[in-house]
Amino acid sequence: MTDYLQSQRASDQLAAEHGIDDPFAAAIRATRMAMIVTDATQADNPIIFANDAFLRLTGYVRSEIIGRNCRFLQGPETDPASVAELRGAIADGEDIAMDILNYRKDGSTFWNALYLSPVRNKQGQIIYFFGSQLDVSDKKRTEDHLRETRSDLEAAVEARTRELTQALEQKTALLHEVDHRVKNNLQLISSLLLLQNRREKEPGVKASLRGILERVNAIATVHRRLFQSADVERFDVSAFVRDLVSDMTGSANREEIRVRLDLERVDVAASKAAPLALVISELFSNALRHAFPDGRPGEILVSITRLNGDFRIEIADDGVGLSETARSSGFGLTIVQLLCQQLKARSETTAADSGTRVVIHLPVNGVHH
Amino acid sequence: MSGRALDVLIVEDEVLLATELEYLAEEVGYHSVGLAMSSDEAVDLANSLHPDLALVDVHLQDGPTGVEVVRKIHDDCGCVALFMTANVKRLPDDFAGACGVIGKPYSEHGVKMALAYLAVCLEEGHAPGWPPVGLELAPAFAERWGLTDMPRTA
């Protein structure tokens, strides 16, 4: 077998150059890490040196492997992509480190952390390849196990997330459905009131119907704004007040009354939106209808600010003042009192320089600071 | 409003809402030509009456078919539609060809302002200013009626 003989000669030459007293050669022979040297100058790059650790790792005896290309370590389960990569590195004369599945003589497999690097002569030509092999099957097993565990966990998390997302979608759909019905029913109620008002001739009854319509409208304005923002549990009071005041002022058709808004953006819990809307609607309506009799001009201020952790809502007019007119039916103020009680809010009514000022202190989180 | 009254078709399955809406439209100068409660009725009436404006609810007697109605009457006879719905957020981005939407629940004053505003837009082909509170215009109509280059604070 000429190949074998040629490799044996190369092997002998290598051994002769690195005799028994060469400490580097001794280290390589004795180390627990498997190592080989191949002859790059021969066809098919055969092994010309293998240390004892390599023989222990692979189960071969030395004579079985000297003169052979080390592809005998590969088997049916070895990843062809890894083999191609390895071949490419050898062809290009480059270092390579990779984990590759190899086979022992008895057919059993092990994961080989392979490091292969070319050895050049003084002229820069590649004359040898040096290879070291480390059995990393345990590490690989642990990694695989971890990967499986992780992918099981990921699958579980994904499934749970899917369930929760579905549940949330259902809940959101339901919320929209209910919201839709509430809005339609509010529209129906206001249509009923408007229709009856059209038929009604008695001024007192018409005024009552208008009063109720106004309250229904205040609640409707809330519902038009509710669930519009990303946070369905909060309600932007300033945006609502802008809508409400513009609608009430417009429908009062009193161009000689100016409305001034001083609105800081404040949010309240959605559950407080409707009662608060009714309070503001009553107070503003009172000013609009009673402060400026007989076409008297003037101004109504609506202001919302934060004060010491409370919301301060002020509705002030420069009209005829409290004493000079019997304000509303009294029912409107009853509503304000009752709802302030419900909202745990304090209401103060004072006679302003001229006109009336009502200030509501609404606790932000249900308690006064 | 100048000239002849604009014809309006109301597409709404709640008859009390529709009746009151008819009054409101006539109070701001429209002429109500009919009421449809289902999608078929709406398409038939739009094709035979050629209204200037159709007020269309999304939920009709045959289900949430209002969007299809608007698209169909827009494609068939170029009828301008206005959505009146509680589900403003569910409308397609192009408004299915409608000129805009009024969110329910609307107020008497709000709907009258919106309809009076649209009457000017329809008759003059140009908006008199920014739309009133409660009326949202479709992007295509905001452009058609010259709102894209109108300053915000007119």
Could you state the CATH homologous superfamily of chain B?
Response regulator
Strand content of chain B: 15-25%
Distance between the termini of chain A: 100 Å
**CATH fold-level name of the largest domain in chain A:** Beta-Lactamase
Question: How would you describe this structure to a colleague?
Answer:
Chain A: InterPro entries: HATPase_C_sf, HATPase_dom, His_kinase_dom, PAC, PAS, PAS-assoc_C, PAS-like_dom_sf, Sig_transdc_His_kin-like_C. Chain A: It catalyses: ATP + protein L-histidine = ADP + protein N-phospho-L-histidine. Chain A: It is an enzyme of class 2 (transferase). Chain A: This is histidine kinase. Chain A: Keywords: Chromophore, Coiled coil, Flavoprotein, FMN. The complex is a heterodimer of chains A (369) and B (154). Chain A is an alpha+beta fold. Chain A folds into two domains: 134 residues, Beta-Lactamase, CATH 3.30.450.20; 131 residues, Heat Shock Protein 90 (2-Layer Sandwich). In chain A, 50% of the residues lie in helices and 23% in strands. In chain A, strand 3 and strand 4 form a beta hairpin. The radius of gyration of chain A is 45 Å and the shape is rod-shaped. The mean pLDDT of chain A is 89. With 154 residues, chain B is α/β, with parallel strands linked by helices. Chain B has one domain: Response regulator (Rossmann fold), CATH 3.40.50.2300. Helices cover 38% and strands 18% of the residues of chain B. Chain B has five helices and six strands. Chain B has a six-stranded mixed beta sheet with strand order 2-1-3-4-5-6, with helices on both faces. In chain B, strand 1, helix 1 and strand 2 form a beta-alpha-beta unit. The chains are: A alpha+beta (369), B alpha/beta (154). The interface between A and B is medium-sized, with 27 and 23 residues.
